[in-house]
Automatic annotation (TrEMBL), chains A, B:
UniProt keyword Zinc-finger, yes or no: no
Keywords: Molybdenum cofactor biosynthesis
Protein name, UniProt field: Molybdenum cofactor synthesis domain protein
GO cellular component terms given for this protein: cytoplasm
Source organism of this protein record: Desulfurococcus mucosus (strain ATCC 35584 / DSM 2162 / JCM 9187 / O7/1)
SMART domains according to UniProt: MoCF_biosynth (SM00852)
Domain of life: Archaea
Boundaries of every MoaB/Mog domain copy: 191-330
GO molecular function: molybdopterin molybdotransferase activity
Range of residues in the leader sequence: none
InterPro entries listed in its UniProt record: MoaB/Mog-like_dom_sf, MoaB/Mog_dom, MoCF_biosynth_CS, MoeA-like, MoeA_C_domain_IV, MoeA_C_domain_IV_sf, MoeA_linker/N, MoeA_linker/N_sf
Length: 414, 414
């Protein structure tokens, strides 16, 4: 029964490091080729380098006439400059092989390659064209109205770094350099289940005498699914019977890279999960110095990681946010998984238990020229509504007794 | 040819209102029942109201003994209070029918229903139990360590409002009240295509003599796909031939609720899209007073909306962000589609053309106690890399000449 006790709590940082290390040792994450348009939410498995310049040549940013800027430096309405029209270059033409001579102009459209020699484009509205003559009424400076070759991306530049979580902008950037397929890690397979004889599964249990429904495991399943790089397998609820739980976890472990459980992590007699897992596996850590989510536990079963989160929704969420995601980030070198951080004034004093790292949900109010953060201090790591109503969270470090009213705090946005 | 000209620019707000109105008049958005776990990213089609309280009864938040707080008000190590143990209530038990009498205590675990009469729970560590006697060494106040019935959600409360974009927290909240299926709008079908004889499609065109690859339409397709409530059909690139474009748009319109095009919206001879659409449909508006994205155009083809965005990636993105998404929001009453807003100091003077609403990408730098916003003023609505490197954008209203260096600005985060 001693395994239930939380006698050797470790720090959040140590928990993250241990979990990342277990991921590294236990998971083989093959890379697969995926079409860029279907790679949203996936993780790049290698750097992608541009093989071309974007734009591929100096091109016009407007409709007008490509010129030597030096030819029209003194152009004005009172003393227009006449140039000889030397033809048309359309956006689908290659850059002309012949260079522009002094005193000449070439008709161009938005996107047209600029002939060598030309270094600027006079816009249509500053020109009068007639037959083979172009009359310019306004000067342009060198480079004006020209998109320089390689201005957006240059050949040899890393467009997407290994470890990037691919979003719509990466899809566009890869497409712009002509890339249609990209190497990504295969999706990580995560099994999710919950324990508790009192817990009913919506849609499965037709009656629920306790009126206690599973929300924590479904929250974790939905969070994992929304990342895009995880395949979630959802196993539902298992009663507080060590043999049943042991079998369920062993089965889930055989079908996944990682299993996440919620519930049963407490120290009371009904919480049999930890004993059940001790029977089929080995405990890596048991309890973390964080609030909420203190009983968070990591076990190895059949050589695979089983992360046990609290049965309380907010505590389970904290385990996801403070330990699971940072461990993925550390293991895979994820470059852009961070939540945006904003500064806000704290609306109320918010205490902390020294030695623990606290994750406090806050709602943000726009005070006109700054944000005010209202902390949710309801006892409740069970209080799911506090998560729904908040827009982010603050973290109080282990060595701090709390934040005072009016303190400037960093808010991690949902 | 006059249809090409941008002679009747309308405001961003008018463009959003017109597009939302067209959506309302042309789209029939049926509601479908979806399992909550599969409803991520979908839009709730009706309010969902709790039929139960969460928690369903007063329950213990800790392991310990349920008591009358009044009985132990004077308990201390020096004068402990003895109570009579009246049994055990486990988390899977129903609330006991018998009430607690004064002088009595009941063994409870985290999640156990509290018997009527009891109004607090003394934690294990403040108690010594021996046989039928419980000795309490510390007082508790009424309500202490008890999760009140309905504290999280109460019966009759709207848990998810119509028009909510469903995220992981909504999945959890719905699950906690026992809901497994939810009414959502069917996905909106959007066709995406691009035009431009010079544009190659990565993965389709084996050679690309112009070295100009389609990125704008792929950006829009990826953005739409990542919303979760849109089914994207991607049609690729079509050359600047009015008949070909007309046919492509008519076909796309027949298979979708909305068609979004990129490219060909300019006023030069090569931009034939607008004429092609004028031939098969009717222009609703042609040009918007915003920067970038000025040539954004709305056409009705076969009674369905066709939104024409600029071929420049940043300008196309602005049309998506400033017009298309706000129109969806307005039409469907989407409650939580807003990007988070933060305040930052502007690093540089940022001018605006009065009469236009400008959308300026910014990168954010954490200056220790505040954020500094560095605007990307590169000419380039073609400069996709500026979007990739920025973390959000600022909006300069029509009636403002620009923002000064050091101004406090609202940054909409990506």
């Amino acid at each position: 029964m001693t395994s239930r006790r939380l006698s050797t709590l470790i720090s959040v940082d140590d928990a993250v490091a241990l979990l990342a290390d277990v991921f590294k040792r236990t998971m083989e994450l093959e890379v697969v080729e995926e079409r860029v348009l279907n790679a949203l939410g996936r993780i790049a498995a290698s750097d992608v380098t541009a093989g071309v310049d974007v734009p591929p040549f100096n091109r016009s940013a407007v409709d007008g006439y490509a010129v030597y800027a030096g030819d029209v430096v003194n152009a004005s309405i009172y003393s227009p400059v006449e140039l000889a029209l030397k033809g048309v270059v359309s956006p689908s033409d290659k850059p002309p092989s012949e260079c522009l001579e002094r005193g000449e102009a070439v008709r161009v459209h938005t996107g047209s390659p600029i002939p060598c020699g030309a270094d600027a484009v006079v816009m249509d509205e500053d020109v009068e064209a007639s037959g083979s003559r172009v009359t310019v009424f306004k000067p342009v400076s060198p480079g004006q109205n020209v998109s320089r070759r390689g201005e957006d991306f240059s050949s040899g530049e890393v467009i997407v770094a290994k470890g990037t979580l691919l979003g719509p902008l990466h899809v566009a950037a890869l497409s712009s350099i002509g890339v249609d397929k990209v190497w990504v890690y295969r999706r990580i397979k995560v099994g999710v289940l919950t324990t508790g004889s009192e817990v009913c599964e919506p849609g499965v249990d037709s009656e629920c005498p306790t009126i206690v429904y599973n929300s924590s495991a479904r929250l974790i399943a939905a969070l994992l699914r929304s990342t895009g790089f995880i395949d979630v397998r959802y196993y539902g609820v298992f009663p507080d019977d060590p043999a049943v739980i042991g079998d369920a976890v062993v089965e889930a472990v055989s079908e996944n890279d990682l299993v996440v459980t919620t519930g049963g992590t407490g120290v009371s007699e009904g919480d049999v999960l930890i004993d059940a897992l001790a029977g089929v596996g080995r405990t890596v850590f048991r309890g973390v110095r964080m609030r909420p989510g203190r009983p968070t536990t990591l076990t190895l079963v059949e050589g695979k990681p089983v992360l046990n989160l609290s049965g309380y929704p907010v505590a389970a969420w904290t385990g996801y946010e403070a330990i699971l995601m940072p461990a993925f980030k550390k293991w895979l070198g994820l470059g852009n998984l961070e939540r945006p951080v904003v500064y806000a004034r704290l609306a109320r004093r918010t205490p902390n238990t020294v030695g623990y790292r606290s994750y406090i949900r806050v709602s943000l109010r726009d005070a006109g020229d700054m944000l005010v953060a209202e902390p949710y201090m309801l006892r409740g790591s069970g209080v799911l509504s506090s998560l729904l109503k908040s827009q982010g969270y603050i973290v109080i470090p282990e060595n701090v007794e709390g934040f005072e009213k009016g303190d400037l705090v960093r808010v991690h946005l949902f």
